[in-house]
Amino acid sequence: MFVFNSQFCxxxxxxxxxxxxxxxxxxxxxxxxxxxxxxGPSMLxxxxxxxxxxxxxxxxxxxxxxxxxxxxxITLISPINPSRIICKRVIGLPGDVVCVDPTGLKAPxxxxxxxPKGHIWVAGDNAxxxxxxxxxxxxxxxxxxxxIAARIYPFNRFTVFSRDATYIEx
Length: 170
Known about the structure:
The chain is α+β, with helices and mostly antiparallel strands and 170 residues long. It is 21% helix and 29% strand. It has three helices and ten strands. Strand 9 and strand 10 (159-160) form a beta hairpin.
């Protein structure tokens, strides 16, 4: 006959609680939002190359997927490598006419495109080091994960990113 040891039961319950916490944290991070580490040169000077900790807000985008704004920082699944999550700035929305490459590095600066329904145009802030819509064209809104709400680390660069954008209406 098997006899339960109370010390064994306590450790078993502690392990179950830890596993439950891990599941809850994962579900919260994937569906509501949470901290994300961002690194790479494509978003310089907004986000540092050496890496920063930001807050990714996922739930508002899931509830209101068509409420993206020009100038917003977003996270999305990379159209080139679906195993990577990337951060870019929204440049154009469905129906907008955008210059494919204002810098002229990857396409003539006179080339323009109309963004189709259900797509957006994204770009990195550091055009020389960014792989973005200039390379892969308009991005399906289905690839967007969420918005970058704030930079929380390093502490001396704490920033809440605004949804306000400045652009010219024609």
